[in-house]
Structures are given as C-alpha cells and as structure tokens.
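[Discussion] Sanity-checking designs against the backbone

I'm trying to build intuition for which residues belong where. Below is a structure token string of 211 positions. I'd appreciate it if someone posts a full sequence so I can compare it with mine line by line.
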C-alpha cells in the first residue's frame, strides 16, 4: 500500500513522512469517492479538501493541481489492482498451472463485482478519450495485465506457440475489462450477472487451453 501511494505522488518535491503518506492516501480516497459520485466534472481540489476537512493548500502540497491529482488517483488504483493480481499469482506458485489460472481468474471476477472498481474503471476509460495521461495509464494497465495472463497460460497446451499465447492473453484481458464495464446489476437481474460471469470464466479457460 505504501509503495502505491509513493508511486502516485509522482513529482512531489519533498520527502514524505509516514503521516504524510496517510494524508496523501486520504486525499486519493476522497478523490475516488467524488469521482464515483459526481464524475470528473465534480472532482475539484476544493471539493477534495472539504471532503476530508483540510485546507486547499494541504491538498496542493501533495498534488499541485487537478490533473496531477487525477493522474495520481488512476495510478494508485491501477497499481493496487495489479499488485492484487501479482499477490494472487505469487500465493499459487506451488500449485498446478491450471489451478493457478483458475484462482487468479476467480479473484478477478470478484474484483469485477466491486461497484467502486467498476465505477472508477468506467470513469478512467471515459477520461482516456479526452486526457492523454489517462489513456497512457490505461494502456499501461492493459499491458501489465496481458503480461500477467501470458505468464499464467503459456504452455498450458504444448501444441500452442508463444506468439499465439500472447494473442490469447490479450483476448482474455479484453473479456475481463469488458465485464468490468458492465456494472453489477441489482435485484432480480443478479442471476443474469452470475450467468455472464460463468460464461466469461468458461471462455477464458477455453481460450487458455484450446488448440
């Protein structure tokens, strides 16, 4: 967690203490909540400061303007997601390859059910259409995800070459990211969501092992 906050601070010129790291994280989480509730148009430096009852200058000490704050927020959330996948992979290091894939896949399907993750993900893609730094961050996340899935699936079928497995990893990432953009439904629609997740899971396993 500390590493992701430090990474998100980017160009902050001074050394950040443990207390400062906690404040920086509070600012990012407040920005996340406002982004989810009001969208990018409602995310302002003053709004973030008011949300956590600090001065505007305090927020600017860590993130000098709105663009830096949004960039830091996206970097923080993307890094946390990537770190979660890496941790799930590491915990399965002594397991059978297919079992590792299934555990990581189930972890990600759980992530896709989180309304906060889905909301931020949707906002980030929307921002990417207007802001170059947002698109660069999303592309970086996709590249990392493709590499992680390539490592999980390469060799599952010895008859499939490495280039084909890179293509398959990209297809798997597209499936999961598409699911993330489908906001978890409420009430009677929950069964449809369960069926959709089951279909994605089955398709990923098919892509990973088919000739």
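Best answer:
Here's mine. Compare freely.
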């Amino acid at each position: 967690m500390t590493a992701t906050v430090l990474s998100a601070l980017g160009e902050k010129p001074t050394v950040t203490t443990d207390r400062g790291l906690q404040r920086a994280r509070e600012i990012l989480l407040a920005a996340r909540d406002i982004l989810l509730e009001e969208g990018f148009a409602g995310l302002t430096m003053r709004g973030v400061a008011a949300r956590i009852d600090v001065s505007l200058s305090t927020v600017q000490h860590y993130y000098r303007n709105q663009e830096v704050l949004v960039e830091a927020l996206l970097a923080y959330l993307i890094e946390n997601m990537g770190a979660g996948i890496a941790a799930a992979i590491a915990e399965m290091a002594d397991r059978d390859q297919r079992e590792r894939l299934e555990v990581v896949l189930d972890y990600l399907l759980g992530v896709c059910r989180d309304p906060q993750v889905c909301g931020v993900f949707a906002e980030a893609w929307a921002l990417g259409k207007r802001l170059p730094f947002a698109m660069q961050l999303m592309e970086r996340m996709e590249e990392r995800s493709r590499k992680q899935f390539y490592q999980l699936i390469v060799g599952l079928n010895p008859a499939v070459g490495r280039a084909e497995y890179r293509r398959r990893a990209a297809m798997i990432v597209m499936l999961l990211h598409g699911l993330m953009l489908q906001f978890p439904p409420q009430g009677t629609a929950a069964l449809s969501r369960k069926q959709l997740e089951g279909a994605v899971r089955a398709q990923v396993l098919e892509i990973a092992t088919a000739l």
